[in-house]
UniProtKB/TrEMBL annotation:
Lineage, uppermost ranks: Eukaryota, Viridiplantae, Streptophyta, Embryophyta, Marchantiophyta
Annotated Pfam families: Inhibitor_I9
PANTHER family tied to this protein: PROTEINASE INHIBITOR, PROPEPTIDE
Descriptive protein name: Inhibitor I9 domain-containing protein
Highest taxon in the source lineage: Eukaryota
Ranges for domain Inhibitor I9: 10-88
Amino acid sequence: MAESQGEATVHIVHMEKGETPLDEIEAKHIEVLASVCGGSHEKAKELVLYQYKHGMRGFSAKLTPEQVTELLTKPGVIAVNKQGVSHIHAGAVTTGGAASAGVNLARNA
């Protein structure tokens, strides 16, 4: 996918816990994000704001709408939600503001 054209905003990407050892989680997150950044690990590292490794697995990053859509198709990605108040329902994470804008930010694991 080419570099995205929409405006980038902060999102939290919730990943499956899986079997990845703690010391390899950050590299796994960068690999997934690089897949929507033209394969550039350097660009992916620039976009990541925080990595979650304990209470949940995932990361926060500045993402365009196109990158969000593409991330949702990647194995291991459970949900992507825009930074803000989130509601958890039966394993899915949704954001009220995005839902009202017609954006589906969660998928079933």
